[in-house]
Amino acid sequence: MIEGLDHWISEQVSGYVRICPICFRKAEHCRFLCQRCASFAAQRQYRQWARFQEGIPVLSLYEWNERDHPFFQEYATSLKGGGSAQIYESLASDMLALRAHLKKCAELTVKRKWVIVPAPRRSGALPDHAEELAFQIAKLARVSFLPCLKRRGEGSQKRKSLVSRWAQNSLELKVGRELANDQTLYIFVDDVITTGSTALLAYKSLGKPKHFEIWTLFNRPRLRGPN
Known about the structure:
By secondary structure, this protein is an alpha/beta fold. It contains 7 helices and 10 strands.
């Protein structure tokens, strides 16, 4: 199916009934998936912190593995292009609940200013799913939303080799200066973490903040997947 078309169809009929983009069953108006698919996804929540380079913690809502590749491929594709604020508010709420569940004891007494930094959209594009998700996280948490990154190139990373992904330097700050502040927690929000190259570029572009987290909907290692 054309990328985002199933999501568009769901949006067109949302005034009457929301259709699950994966199985096309009826879904609740404020949820993206039907109850059955949502239950399937919930059982695959990634309920632990992952660790990345330089000790950066990664918070992911779902574990996208080889076995469940077709389901999450359809799920991720359906989110492309953004959409209803209710959908992203629901996903943002789930991510904040997971973060609260997994937070460290030290964080109960140490309070820092949060700044939510979304993965940048492509030049000239409308707000996309990563930006919509980041905005709703910031709105619900009542913290700053800072779309301060921009892309240097327009090439997709989807079919690039691991070496190519890590070699490129495709992100930069719009403001042209480092923003790192030791009293601030910077949270980089994207839809999928695969190799982590984009997230690491964001970390470096921000000036390697002392307090930095990566939040994604899907934790997806490089999979073979069906052809």
